[in-house]
Specification:
alpha+beta; four-stranded mixed sheet; 272 residues; protease; 4 strands
């Protein structure tokens, strides 16, 4: 597989930042409409109220019924299960994680929860769990992309023990996730970040903007501070396509080819 080795930006340490997936839209990173009203650093946990045990409040049966939480939770879990069984990107991520000593158990490591605002999901390194926002993720296609995105953050944590509190490490993982799963030519053109000219430069701009948006949601940094960190680590992290070895744009068959090629490197006996 044509993939770069472990990025030197990532070193052994602990992590507490939760990495977010946000809904795709046509707004810029500085005008996303998503806010995190925190006085100090909470590392993204604001968006996941069920992650905050001190502030978590038990909801009544009537409240859950009114918000159809049981139904949305069931649908979310069904979508996750389908993604684990049939989606090429998710299957590759799960197997790559297991090959690096971090097996993914559905009930233990993936949680469907209610989230705030327009956040689709996150990876919580404190509990080693991927969160899928059941109130915002309504289709299997979106669920699979969010799941693959967050499993990539889990892979970075497992492979290299990244410290998500370190802005350089956080930027690197967000660059990789945006590069692998979000900035296809079609998506970038629809958001005004790409055109038929200067495709490579426009793709890199899309990746930078997506990483910038994600970083500013979970950290109290200015746009300039985040941009400087992203620029500093961009080349190394943009070229690190492990474990896919390619950018897996939607509907181009690249995820399928990456999955087939990865059988030379990972054991797929448990999922065939």
């Amino acid at each position: 597989m044509a993939a770069s080795s472990k990025s030197p930006e990532i070193k052994e340490s602990q992590a507490n930042t939760i990495n977010l997936s946000v809904k795709e839209n046509n707004t810029s990173s500085s005008d996303s409409g998503i806010t995190n009203p925190k006085d100090g650093e909470d590392f993204g946990y604001f968006f996941f109220p069920e992650r905050d045990r001190l502030k978590k409040q038990e909801k009544s049966f009537l409240s859950k019924l009114w918000n159809r939480e049981d139904i949305t939770n069931f649908k979310c879990k069904a979508n996750v299960l389908s993604c684990m069984k049939s989606n090429d990107k998710v299957k590759l991520m799960v197997t790559a994680l297991e090959s690096h000593g971090c097996p993914v158990e559905l009930d233990r490591h993936i949680s469907c929860e209610m989230c705030r605002d327009r956040v689709n999901g996150g990876f919580d390194p404190k509990s080693m769990q991927v969160v899928i926002c059941q109130n915002n993720v309504h289709t299997q296609d979106v669920c699979c992309n969010v799941l693959a995105h967050e499993l990539l953050h889990a892979f970075d944590y497992c492979r290299a023990k990244v410290n998500f509190e370190n802005l350089r490490h956080l930027a690197c993982s967000e660059i990789r996730a945006a590069n692998m799963f979000h900035c296809s030519l079609g998506a970038a053109m629809s958001s005004g970040e790409a055109s038929l000219f200067h495709v490579k430069e426009r793709h890199q701009l899309c990746v930078k903007n997506k990483a910038l948006q994600s970083m500013r949601l979970v950290r109290n940094v200015t746009e300039l501070e985040a941009m400087m960190v992203i620029d500093d680590v961009f080349d190394k992290c943009y070229n690190d396509t492990e474990p896919f070895g390619r950018r897996c744009f939607k509907n181009l068959g690249r995820a399928k080819r990456a999955l087939n090629e990865s059988r030379n490197y990972y054991d797929f006996s448990d999922i065939d």
